[in-house]
Structures are given as structure tokens and as C-alpha cells.
Write a structure and sequence with these properties.
Distance between the termini: 16 Å
Largest sheet: 2 strands, antiparallel
Order of helices and strands: HHHHHEEHHHHHEEHHHHHHHHHH
Helix content: over 70%
Structural class: mainly alpha
């Protein structure tokens, strides 16, 4: 690259995003100091302690940024598949050669350095997906193309699951936000959201029985019927079909009531039968009138019903015991303050003790006494809450919000599909990490162990997010050349 081109890169780079990045890593370093100082028996700048160690990683990150920005922007598209293949090879090697650390095999130990390949797989997957979707004539709504992209996303996800790192694997679901932006059917996104809602509802009310009716199944079946009605209204606005479905619903429950006068009736079975009947009716309309949207809605209804019926099996026979306990604690089905709920309980105490303005830097009692496990990694946000209070926590969330909004704005101004897809992938990953990590710390989501970008201690995490972000800034800086 000529000296002129190098100058142009720094002239065109988005300095607002860089400023947000610098603010976040500085705030993250102070949070790590607050979470780990005094327990390392070292000064804040001593490399033997975590604050000093993180400072070294931050310094190296700026060297890494310089290298990323100096490489030609075409480098990332040309070598996208090669980078992806290399990271996949690292992930596979990690499965077999990584030592067992807290039940998972996700860290490669190279002398004094520990490396977590899963943190680097995010940018590699984003590059590979962007290159695939940038190919000539690519259309996401074609099944073969969608399956290609899905394979690129699911392969690293599977490798990370085999490392027993469920939380890191779930991050790859964030790519579906980008796919929705790029034209993926809204049914996929709706199905994912509904799956979460149906799972939570089924679990929450699984043991609630009124009369002979299982309330959890009745509520979920009722939601499926309601969503089906809304989809028919939105897709076709067919008043006759809606009237027929409403009549079927009234007849089914009226018949159930009349039957209950003579024998016990489980209304959840009435609702399940009604979902099947409505789906069959929509299939009939689809074949008769060649309205394929009805077939999709029927598939959604039957798929949702099958998912609801499989919740009990998935929870009891597929999920690990510790995962079952975490979910039960999150849903309030089990109180385990000294076991699975200990981390979240102590985190809430730490955040609550910070009050409005916080206790001040290095003055957090919960963090100083190390009541919160993993308080400088996965639960770093509780340190922010205790030391900086509600105001400080909100400021941090606002800065993250500005970063995500900025990334979306930059993605929209890209002139190439490759850069736009990569940019939306970056934004989606940040959204997922922020929402799940903060939700986990305050007890809104199950504890799955994923870091807060630029705040959680660790070189792999910091470098992974830095590479992810600055490759996009490099692509954005050269957008006028494309």
C-alpha cells in the first residue's frame, strides 16, 4: 500500500467509533481494577496482577489495530475462507488437546499464554458469511444459498458445543439478526422468538394444573392459535379464513365445556386438537387456492406445537443437570441461593448496594471481599453497578448503545454487500453479548458465561472484539474505493 493510501485510511476512518472503543476499554480497565485489586497482592500496573496484565493486552491491541488498518481492505475478502478454515482447525484442535478447565475444553495452553479460539471464531465466521453472500447472483431466499450460509454459522457453533462452551456457542444465533436484515424470511426470526417464549411459558406453568387442565400447554396452545390468526390477517387479510378459524375456536371450547358436564376434560388437549384442525384447514386452503403463505403458516403452527410437546424431553434428557438448575433458578422455579443461584444473588446484592451514585472507585465491599465469583470476567458489570451506581451503569449502557447504533449506521452506508453483511454481523454480535451478559448479571437471563465486550478480563476476549470491530472500520474507510 502506498504512503498516500495509508494516509487516506486514517483520514477516512470513523473516529467516532474509535473514540467509543477507547472509552469502553478504559472504563473496562478501571472495572477490572475494582474487581481484582488487593487480591493479586500487586499494584495496578504490575504485570503479575490482573489490572497490569489487562493493560498489556490493551497496549498490544493498539498494535493489532495498526496492523489491521494497514492491511489492504481486499485482504479480508480474498482470504476470508482461508481465515475461516484456519480458525475451524484451531477449534477442532481445541476439542482434543485443550485441558479441562472448569468442565470445558476451550483453552489452548501455549506456555505462559492461554488462548481461547472461540473468541476469534466470531470475526472469522462473519468474514466467511460476508464473502459467501457477496458472491455473484447470491440470493438468500434460495434454499441452497441459505443452507450454505447456515452451514458456515453452525460449523463453529458445533465445534464450540463439543468444547462444552454452551454460552459461546449460543452467540452464533446473533447472525440471524443480520440474515433478517439481508432478506431472510421473518418466519425464522418469529420462530426463534416464539421458541423462547413457548419454552419459558411451558416450564413456568408445567406443574400448574387447574381441574384436569395443564395450564402451561393450554397457554402455549392459545398463543399459537392467536399468532396463527395474526399471521393470516397480515399475510392475506382473508376475512373468510379468519371467520372460519374463530368459529372453529368457539365450537371447540364450547364442545369441551359441554363434554366437561359429563366427564373430566383437559382443555389443553382441546387447544392442541384445535391447533391441528386449524393447520389442516390452512393446508386445504393452500392447496385449493395455491396460496403458499397458508402452507407456511400451517407449518409454523404444527412446528410450534411439536416444539411445545418436546420441551419436557429437551429439558430433562438433553440439557445438563447444571443447566437445568440454572434455568429453574432464572424462572423462579427453584430457590438455590447457595448453589446455582449464588452468583446472580451476590451480583444483585453488589449492584443494589451501589445505589444511585455508587461507592466510588476501589470502594466496593462486595467486590473487595470477593463475594461474587467471576467478578472480573463474566460478572464484571456488577462491579460497575457497585462502584459507579445506577448512574454509572446507565452511562455504560448508553455508550454501548451509541456504539451499536453507530455500527448500524456505518453498515447502511456501505457500497458493497461484503462490507454491509460484515458490519451487521458485528453489530448483531455486540447486541447479543450486551443483552445476555447484562441480563445474566441482573438475573433476567440464565447464567451461560459470555463476556461483556471490552470490560471482561482476558486477552482473547479483548483481542477477539478488537479484531471484529476494526476489520469493519478498515472496510468502511475504503468504501469509496469500491
Amino acid at each position: 500500500m502506498s504512503s498516500y493510501r495509508k494516509t487516506e485510511v486514517w483520514k477516512n476512518v470513523d473516529w467516532i467509533t474509535i473514540l467509543l472503543y477507547v472509552i469502553l476499554i478504559i472504563a473496562g480497565w478501571f472495572s477490572i481494577c475494582g474487581a481484582s485489586y488487593q487480591f493479586d497482592n500487586a499494584g495496578l500496573f504490575d504485570p503479575a496482577g490482573r489490572p497490569g496484565s489487562q493493560l498489556i493486552w490493551i497496549g498490544l491491541s493498539f498494535i493489532l489495530i495498526f496492523v489491521i488498518m494497514m492491511l489492504d481492505s481486499d485482504f479480508y475478502s480474498v482470504f476470508a475462507y482461508l481465515i475461516y478454515a484456519f480458525i475451524i482447525a484451531l477449534l477442532i484442535a481445541t476439542i482434543f488437546f485443550a485441558p479441562n478447565i472448569k468442565g470445558s475444553h476451550s483453552w489452548l495452553v501455549l506456555g505462559p499464554i492461554r488462548l481461547q479460539p472461540a473468541e476469534f471464531a466470531k470475526f472469522a465466521t462473519a468474514l466467511a458469511v460476508a464473502k459467501c453472500m457477496n458472491s455473484y447472483g447470491f440470493r438468500l431466499n434460495q434454499p441452497k444459498n441459505f443452507l450454505k450460509v447456515l452451514g458456515l454459522i453452525l460449523l463453529p457453533m458445533l465445534c464450540i458445543l463439543l468444547q462444552k462452551e454452551t454460552g459461546s456457542a449460543l452467540v452464533y444465533l446473533a447472525f440471524f439478526l443480520m440474515l433478517y436484515r439481508e432478506g431472510m424470511s421473518g418466519y425464522f426470526l418469529l420462530s426463534g422468538i416464539c421458541a423462547v417464549i413457548f419454552f419459558v411459558t411451558s416450564m413456568k406453568f408445567s406443574e400448574v394444573i387447574i381441574g384436569d387442565t395443564v395450564i402451561g400447554e393450554l397457554i402455549v396452545s392459545g398463543m399459537i392459535i392467536l399468532i396463527t390468526l395474526l399471521l393470516v390477517q397480515l399475510e392475506r387479510k382473508d376475512k373468510r379464513a379468519i371467520q372460519v378459524i374463530v368459529c372453529m375456536t368457539l365450537i371447540a371450547f364450547a364442545g369441551g365445556y359441554l363434554a366437561s358436564l359429563a366427564m373430566p376434560v383437559d382443555y389443553s388437549w382441546v387447544a392442541i386438537g384445535l391447533v391441528i384442525a386449524i393447520a389442516l384447514y390452512l393446508i386445504f386452503l393452500s392447496l385449493k387456492n395455491r396460496v403458499w403463505h397458508y402452507l407456511i403458516i400451517a407449518a409454523f403452527s404444527l412446528g410450534s406445537l411439536a416444539f411445545m410437546c418436546s420441551v419436557d424431553y429437551v429439558f430433562n434428557d438433553i440439557l445438563e443437570p447444571h443447566q437445568q438448575v440454572r434455568i429453574k433458578v432464572s424462572l423462579g422455579l427453584k430457590d438455590d441461593p447457595s448453589g446455582a443461584g449464588y452468583n446472580v444473588n451476590q451480583s444483585k446484592i453488589a449492584i443494589g448496594s451501589g445505589g444511585l451514585t455508587g461507592k466510588g472507585f476501589l470502594n466496593g465491599t462486595q467486590t473487595k471481599l470477593k463475594y461474587v465469583p467471576e467478578q472480573d470476567t463474566d460478572f464484571i458489570f456488577c462491579t460497575v453497578g457497585e462502584e459507579q451506581g445506577f448512574i454509572g451503569s446507565v452511562v455504560v449502557l448508553i455508550i454501548f448503545g451509541f456504539l451499536i447504533i453507530r455500527l448500524i449506521a456505518l453498515s447502511e452506508r456501505q457500497t458493497s454487500t461484503f462490507s454491509r453483511v460484515y458490519g451487521y454481523s458485528v453489530a448483531s454480535i455486540f447486541i447479543f453479548h450486551l443483552a445476555i451478559n447484562v441480563g445474566m448479571v441482573i438475573g433476567l437471563t440464565p447464567v451461560i458465561g459470555i463476556p461483556l465486550p471490552f470490560f471482561s478480563y482476558g486477552g482473547s476476549s479483548l483481542w477477539g472484539f478488537t479484531i471484529l470491530l476494526f476489520i469493519f472500520l478498515r472496510l468502511d474507510a475504503s468504501r469509496r474505493e469500491r
